[in-house]
Queue: 2 jobs
Job 1
Amino acid sequence: MGALLMILALLMLPGVGFAYYYESGDQTPLLYSAFASFAIGATLFFSFSNQDQNIRKREGYLIVSLSWLFMSIFGMLPYLISGVVDNLPDAIFETVSGLTTTGATILTDIEATPKGILFWRSMTQWIGGLGIIVLTVAIFPLLGIGGIELFVAESPGPTSDKLHPRIRETAKRLWFVYIGLTVAVGVLYYVEGMNFYDAVNHALTTMATGGFSTKNDSMAYFSPIIQYTAIFFMFLSGTNFTLIYFGLTGRFKRVWHSDEFKAYVIALVIFLILLVGPVWYYSAEGFEKAFRDTLFQITSLITTTGYVTSDYTAYHSGLTLIFFMFLFLGASAGSTSGGIKFVRHLTFFKNSWLEFKRIVHPRAVVPLKINGDRVTGKIITHIMNFLLIYLMIFVVGSIVISLMGYDILTSFGAVATSLGNVGPAIGRVGPEDNFAFFDPFSKIFLSFLMLLGRLELFTILVLFTPYFWRAN
Amino acid sequence: MGALLMILALLMLPGVGFAYYYESGDQTPLLYSAFASFAIGATLFFSFSNQDQNIRKREGYLIVSLSWLFMSIFGMLPYLISGVVDNLPDAIFETVSGLTTTGATILTDIEATPKGILFWRSMTQWIGGLGIIVLTVAIFPLLGIGGIELFVAESPGPTSDKLHPRIRETAKRLWFVYIGLTVAVGVLYYVEGMNFYDAVNHALTTMATGGFSTKNDSMAYFSPIIQYTAIFFMFLSGTNFTLIYFGLTGRFKRVWHSDEFKAYVIALVIFLILLVGPVWYYSAEGFEKAFRDTLFQITSLITTTGYVTSDYTAYHSGLTLIFFMFLFLGASAGSTSGGIKFVRHLTFFKNSWLEFKRIVHPRAVVPLKINGDRVTGKIITHIMNFLLIYLMIFVVGSIVISLMGYDILTSFGAVATSLGNVGPAIGRVGPEDNFAFFDPFSKIFLSFLMLLGRLELFTILVLFTPYFWRAN
Ligand SMILES: [K+]
Ligand SMILES: [K+]
């Protein structure tokens, strides 16, 4: 666990280094940011290095939650010191939206923002993506959070309280995939016509399923070939990175062995087939443009990236609702995407189907299998409970936002996109809007929902239960 | 099972007798209705009396589904033959809305409808309420549907394939409660100033949690004392009838022993306390009126009755959303109310809470208890799956309705209120609207959702699975 915190601290540094290198007149705030990042890293390392092996599970929840909180506090310094953001709630919102890879923004004119700050903004998403890989592979299995760690291939599950050597191995591989693909997509963007600055920024926010752009028009600003590239890499960033590693090393059978990957691919194809016709009809565009827009928005929303190339709320109320539903999907466990994720949906669908078998044959033992392995009742219960708590937080959150005076669709949209770490939504927070108009309380509340969603709900919620605080 | 079908057939007859007695110029269509009802009863009795003990579980799903389908088909004859409704989709909608105790209507001027037909309309709800008691007590436990039968007090659960004598005893008691309370509330309504016709109609639709009224203004037409009476009897009609029987026989300890009853009462009180202030503020009415309206609408929506005395969508978007959320509650198992019901919510909430204990103490055995009894993992899974399927049908149903060209809130409202058998909703199907404007497909689709919700989803859904059709 101490090792993880060292890593967390260290990976703040390259981010700051990059930011420092790219500064364009706003150097001082970024230097402060670098100092702050180093400070938090050193503090964490110093605090915990002397009790490395003795940190208990319950302290883990607190450390993970506090790590993200600290990162958010120090991460917002560049915005505040530079004056790009002039109040605390906005700074909290923008930073948390970055670190959680949500990508919702309070900036009304992105292109007018200093390039150094804007780079830091993209970098927060990349750091967030890296952080979520660590959590998924190394921390959540130990903490028993979310119930999906068993489906991240090669993860040995919660068998030991110490960092398993194989986990460290897996984590290294995934970082290799993450960093490698970031470089690859950045080079492609550059070759395909983006300038160097835009290419780097979009590479960072593509692989993090972040969705921050340097352009007010998001990806709609760029050429079709760049949009297709973005689609492909958004798809990859929503794929379990272990499977990408298998793919890169030629083990394609193991890739297709994953039920979640199959469901993810099949769902994308089915949604594309179903929606391309209606979008073509209602958008009154050429077929290629309608096809590209449909595929782009489906991929962007399902992977929770949140780039946009067209206003999907402008076609038809039924299509708006379908695109809104995508906010609840999420892509794969073991990727950087947020939201519920396919393996949970798959568990729910498979179990629903088997429930019918169970009521018809009440005495039969009807096991549920994923990737060929039997899933225990405990994990099925945990996952279905996760789904219900997720939906309940969505409902309660929407009530809170609507009580602040916003219409129901805007409230649904803002809460769903925050909780799912997506970015755009429906209502007044549609794909062409921003979150600047919300009051300070709502901004902080939505930031909290982003953190809640990003840390798989339980990590934070457990801190509010007596089980966590009760001695031993 | 044969006994049940005889009962089902027989209880069509008093309904028809009433209708015949009350006819006010529209006698012939009601005579046909009487004949039809008798015909279906006789047919069912004749078909199954010779194989009484041999009906298998799987045939049960089909029989229950078909019984409601047949009742709907014959129940709509009075509307069609009288000409009150001039097309099939509208007749289907109105009849299914009656028999499922939903209470949504396509009639635009209720007071202009002939009194005999209007009485038949109220009677369909009362028959539906009676039917649902039979299903809950005698049929669902045998079929293993819904997972809540174990919480209906004194129900012995799915231990035998034959109609247990104690079940017959329980069913008799519940009918006694149902019929007794119907008479009681009818007498009270009459004494408090309703005319005889209105008192009888409203007595039938109050105890069925039906919500059909003989007035265009629903219960807003009547005096405050009648509204308070309605509140009290709506509350009772949403209570487990076994508990009312205990209450009537003085066993109050057993009433309060029910966790579901406690949750139901506490929720009503909490919602009242939370909402009375805001409603008072936004309605600009006197406090007593605001208090009465708040309590009335909360009780009406949660018990899925659907009477209205004020437009709860006119206050504030946040309050509208809260009232909309009530459509997903439902009252108690073993009552005539529809929807999800408190015992399922209770199971979900308790299990969510325990999930945190389980992740903090992964090796501990953490059982879930309701009414002091341990609930098996199988039932927890079944109930949580029910909740998720319910919500999934809500989402898919809303997409279907919105694709027919209605706005998102109207689609959400129409689907939620149909599935939950409530009646009024939000959007264009608010408390002062009706369902006449929907296209024929949507009307039939919403009718299907009403049946789906009323038969606890699984009864109908199982017919669409191979497990049901595969030989043995
Ligand atoms: K995002
Ligand atoms: K109703």
Job 2
Amino acid sequence: MTPSSPFLPIKCGRVEEINTQEENLTKPMPNLHIMDPKLLQSMVYDALVWSSLHGLVVGDRNIQRSGKVPGVGMVHAPFALLPMSFPESHWRQACELAPIFNELVDRVSLDGEFLQDSLSRTKKVDAFTSRLLDIHSMMLQNNKNEEIRLGLHRSDYMLDEQTKLLLQIELNTVSSSFPGLSCLVSELHRSLLNQFKEQLGLDSGRIPGNASLSQFAEALAKAWKEYNNPRAVVMIVVQTEERNMYDQHWLSTVLKERYDVSTIRKTLAEIDEQGVLLPDGTLLVGDHAIGVIYFRAGYTPNDYPSESEWRARYLMEQSSAIKCPSISYHLAGTKKIQQELAKPNVLERFLDNKDDIAKLRKCFAGLWSLDDSSIVKDAIERPEFYVMKPQREGGGNNIYGDDMRKALLRLQEEGTEENAAYILMQRIFPTIAPSLLMRDGICHKNHAISELGIYSAYLRNKENVIMNEHCGYLMRTKVSSSNEGGVAAGFAVLDSVYLT
Amino acid sequence: MTPSSPFLPIKCGRVEEINTQEENLTKPMPNLHIMDPKLLQSMVYDALVWSSLHGLVVGDRNIQRSGKVPGVGMVHAPFALLPMSFPESHWRQACELAPIFNELVDRVSLDGEFLQDSLSRTKKVDAFTSRLLDIHSMMLQNNKNEEIRLGLHRSDYMLDEQTKLLLQIELNTVSSSFPGLSCLVSELHRSLLNQFKEQLGLDSGRIPGNASLSQFAEALAKAWKEYNNPRAVVMIVVQTEERNMYDQHWLSTVLKERYDVSTIRKTLAEIDEQGVLLPDGTLLVGDHAIGVIYFRAGYTPNDYPSESEWRARYLMEQSSAIKCPSISYHLAGTKKIQQELAKPNVLERFLDNKDDIAKLRKCFAGLWSLDDSSIVKDAIERPEFYVMKPQREGGGNNIYGDDMRKALLRLQEEGTEENAAYILMQRIFPTIAPSLLMRDGICHKNHAISELGIYSAYLRNKENVIMNEHCGYLMRTKVSSSNEGGVAAGFAVLDSVYLT
């Protein structure tokens, strides 16, 4: 195995230092909506070609088989034509937070009582969280310890325009998407900035190196090595249809090419059907011993249509395979836990270093439970400053504005336990910027907002922390609909960062 | 520019020596139709993934925009799942022939009289060849010399099973397709042979390195350099719809990444509309001076629906741009010229080296004009041993069997000049082998025949030959329909070579 695989665009393999010496030579990002039409046309064409040749692709939702069979019904992944400006100081801040959040998730995951207590009221009103907690309880009862723990997280932030504060939106501890494609987008943007250097006057060195793919693969490979069975494989838990399969295939490809580690792909139903637990804890699926379980499904109730899927989840959790994530890591990433950790003196329960605690707290947006009647009152009066988030995973379920006001009033009236299914969060107002968003081969001029995701990897065994670092990033740029005052609506695209 | 681009699978960049020491360890190609179904399924899946991530793609004919807009409606290129066995001695023979054919084409192209005379009767019955000859005549009249001459050819061969002779099917001097994708197929096959080494027992080192892409790009870049205008571009002449655009985009990408040479893509109609010839012979198209014209269109009458396209062809031919091919090179690759060159003592007119002449002659199949009444008589009596080929370019126009017999009888009766629109060629019977052909994500078990194409590049200026070499190869494997006794019917896929 060569350390530098031929199958990766060369820059994907390393995180680069930013060259700040050329700062004076660098023009700011131009207004993308007043670009010369001929230049725009050339850039669009070249970007589409680049995507097609370099595997920056997804399954086309208009084509039936595209989520099942690789190689058919492919279309370029939606992407921003140029990277999004982002202040270097905030970028560095986000990277620095990554290992601290990794450590926090690990500590929280070890405190079974904290997880159960914090989620006890949510359990009553959210069937999905309830099932996860049941599995968690059984593991506690059986004294099941996860000695080797692997986390592949993505912490998402927005930059609040008024306060200039970097505020955390959420921390994904399960199934963080786009580690494979995000570094391709960075590479695409570097390529375009070089190709059109004269016309754009932008410095491709201001796009930070993005090693999400190679470092996620490295973390999975190192975890596999810790499992210490050369015949074992990495199992990717997948949905029955997955149009984002190429993002996952990139990881499998690098795992195989660079580390000679094989992967298999199984749905929860297939794991239930084919999975067997040996007395020593080994999980067999089909003919394969499973060393590492990497979840790219199982984070939403939709992935558990029957008891079969829950049996599979329970079976995996009982096994000696390294779970990414374990049920504890999964629960530690829920919104309710995010809100609990934001309460005074809770971080101190898990972390010792005061600087670290201060850094985390600085990025916490206002987070409240619906038990806090003064906040609920304020949210009803000034709904524009809040967002109501259901515990349930997956975007697009947030409640804003008048809908939120009505929902809060209804919950007040009914006085039920349903309160516990939601949290309230401070509304963040990021900068709205003119953007060029590519979808289905068409360039859309939109006003858009961006969310910065920082990938991080954490791996430890009984004795040592083996990996604890930020790995790369994903900018997600979303069409901003004016009637929601900056809230994401419409479609989102993959983007990268241009440091300013 | 780095010599080894990050955008190429690493092996695509060089022609490798075959390691013959491991010969004893190598198993022959197994019967692909009796492969373990589970193994087959894994290989199919991995091959489809590999294609998608590495740009081995084409536009899907079922999707309207896929021939116009890059990045939409993509599907894996059709390919054989495993390489086709081919004897190493014949492989080497084909490679050795490449520079000799290059030289021959160049010499023939300089003999305007030979081209005009040989094609004089064809001119009367084939309107397309006639128009090409008209342009050629005008160039002769104007003493237009092409001092810098670039040829990017592909010579196609079949291996006759009974005689074990490598016989040339045709020599493509214009628009040879798949230099970009063919080396990806070789890389895919190497990857599969490595991945499934234990199960298949095949040695990936027996798949020869395939540098068609990088060497075609090198030849174009060197020609561009000879033109000696740093602001000039390479113009690819394209069809209005092109589902094989990614094959061409690979060349543009390597040209830009490795040599910093820009390409533009224009249809013949666009060239007519936007093209201007400056007094010094410079061809301007839009804002661009054209250094090299690379034809990926213009080889079939369909590409000239109106006078506009012919004006474009004439305009280009008058210019100082390096044409790949010039009108002379184009004519030198016609079937009629192939047949003329096969006549006794004709090769001697162009080449001095007796060994070279013998090597060429050895690969000539029987080729006859329809003036040869004894051959026509034999073909009517034993049609299974002949194929009738129209002068017209593009596959699928050949006439076999009873159809041929009837056509020959009709031509005899009518006694017209139409004779001259065809040649007769010895029917070649290649080995029929069980094959696994991938199309639209589905693996087809077929009996198939293969045709080996050897890419070659030739470049010279007034003083020196700058490049004259074989560059790589393309195996094309086609479904063999039994009712035609070994003749290609149905679909063809891209394939590579496994040396035995």
